[in-house]
Amino acid sequence: MIALRKIFMFGATLGVILLTATSATRAQDYPTRPIMAIVPFAGGSASDVVSRILFDHMSKTLGQPIVVENRPGAGGNSGTADATKAAADGYTIVGSGSGPVAANVTLYKHLDYDPQKDLAIISPFASFTIIVAASSKLPVNTVQELIDYAKAHPGELNYGSVGIGSSQHLAGEYFAQLTGVKITHVPYRNIGQYVPDLMSGQVPLGFQWFPNVSAALTAKGARALAVAGANRLQALPDVPTTKEAGLPQYVVSGWFALLAPRGTPPAILAELNGALKAAVTDESVRARFAQQGAEAIYMALDQSKQFIGNEIVKYHDIITKAGIAQID
Q1: What residue ranges define each of the domains in the chain, with the CATH number in brackets?
Q2: Does the predicted TM-score (pTM) go above 0.90?
Q3: Is the peptide bond before 31 cis (omega within 30 degrees of 0)?
Q4: Are 174 and 144 in contact (CB under 8 A)?
Q5: In the Cβ-directed half-sphere of 64, how many Cα atoms lie within 13 Å?
Q6: Which residues of the chain fall below pLDDT 70?
């Protein structure tokens, strides 16, 4: 009996060794075929634009194409959930944002996934400074004029976002908290639905990332009143910061990160993290990000894990203080 047990234990140990060796070999060969990247937001959105810039460079580093698949819906939750159900082999990755990865943990009573348990973060890669934008049909040209107008018309002004709990939604809530104005949030399924309403004046406000409103700004259908960051944006050099505009407390940004299904081999995560680092430290990529109003960022795998945990706590505090009701 003892001999049989020893043989069984030896066989089990050998099996683990062989399985580990096989996984290591696969990771060492990775990638040998195209990689699918899920972007849980609409094509042409800020997240989609910078993701494609990133993936274009990463594909050259990895030697395989990265094929983008847009899966918008539920504020980014649907596509992010899809990624958690994919095989953990490095051939499905997801570029998701601060909403579905951090804020929605508090905002939704039930998510189909747990970001910390079901996903492995590779690294955040882009930070988007919020732009305070107003329809050209709204008679305001500065942040102070917007505040004065909103106070004179309480509850009449609407602002749009890509969904409840998105960074744009919470940026609007934070603006209302700081200034004491009453404005109404209007969630959209995707940014393409919102922009025409911004330009027409139907939903005349936005606390948005630059790519989301760039077409409206170029067409003069909307104007940028301020950027909620420490510095002016390269893409909008004539637009003041919120500090310059007289609202220094209002500093807000959203972020986008690359993740993979939990259980993806560490060697593959490291390979993807290295390719991401090579991309965001490339001057041409950083310049293209800057044109989109985004700042390139990078973190090592252990730092990235801690970052997600901290962001979940931060958004929990923001949502709780704003009194935003949980979504069923």
Answers
A1: 35-128+254-322 (3.40.190.150), 131-251 (3.40.190.10)
A2: no
A3: yes
A4: no
A5: 18
A6: 1-27
